[in-house]
Structure formats: structure tokens, C-alpha cells
Amino acid sequence: MYIGLGYDVHRFKKGLPLILGGVQIEHKEGLLGHSDADVLIHALMDALLGAAGLPDIGHHFPDTDLQYRNISSLLLLKEVMEMLERERLLVRNVDITLLAERPIIRPYIDRMKENLSKIIGIPPARIGIKATTNEKMGFIGRGEGIAAMAVSSVEPKEQPRKR
Ligand code: MG
Hints:
This protein is α+β, with helices and mostly antiparallel strands and 163 residues long. It has a single domain, classed as CATH 3.30.1330.50. Helices cover 29% and strands 31% of the residues. The chain has 5 helices and 7 strands. It has a 5-stranded mixed sheet. Helix 1 runs parallel beside helix 3 and helix 3 runs parallel beside helix 4. It starts with a strand and ends in a 7-residue tail after the last strand. The relative contact order is 0.25. It binds magnesium ion. The site of magnesium ion (MG) has 5 residues, from strand 1 and helix 1.
């Protein structure tokens, strides 16, 4: 079994939609980014790529590439799953923590899990999504943006044959 770790952060900007885990969240501002700035899925993708020993999302989806402008991160996650498929890896579980002073994420978690479950191909029970504030400390605490941390575990589809 292999473990991967991912981290991402995006800053808030007024007039943008807030999309987390592929769900549009009601909030007075959204996150700034080249794609839809779905910080949760970005951290998750890096955790999956890391477990597979592959380069990070900046390598696969550079923000200089116009085809990724405003793209749904759910589509990028699909591409990452195809990369894992090519490596003949199965995802066992993923776990994600959002760090945000606001908004309250809890009402949206089930829908996020559903979105991720469909693409990763594991049941919602193998997907952890939780959120914490930063106790008003630092840039998260001042409400300047949202950060996300993720881990994943994957395993090879076939066990290597014993000699
Ligand atoms: Mg990002």
C-alpha cells in the first residue's frame, strides 16, 4: 500500500463563486485561481499523484495552459484517476481537511463525498471530509483564503507474484 500527501491554498476574492468538492457553496466571496480554484480537489489530486509517485498537479495542469482556465476541478480529478489507472493502482481511501474560518462546510459534505465517490470509484464511507477553523490565527484566521490538506492510500491492482 502507498500513501500520498497533498496541500493547497487559494485566496478569497469578491465576485467569484465558491466551489469546494465540486459543490457550489453559498458565500459572499469565492476563491481565486486559474481553474475553478477548488482547493479541496487540488489537495486531493496531489495526494493521489503523490501516492502513485507521479509529479504534482502544477506539472500536469500548468496555469499557463489556457485549456485549464476556469475548468471544473472534477474534470481534472477524472484525468488524475486515468493516470492512476494507467499505473494499475486502486484507491483504498482518501481523507481531506479544510482549513477555513468561514463558511460553515458541514451542510455540503455529503454532496462533496458523492461527487468524489463517483469519480474515484470508492464508496463515500472511504472518503473523509472535515473542516476546522484556524482559531482566528494567521491568514486563514483573518479569512484571507482557504487551505486544504489531503492524504490517500492506493494499492497495486495485482499483487506481485511470489517466486
Ligand atoms: Mg490550487
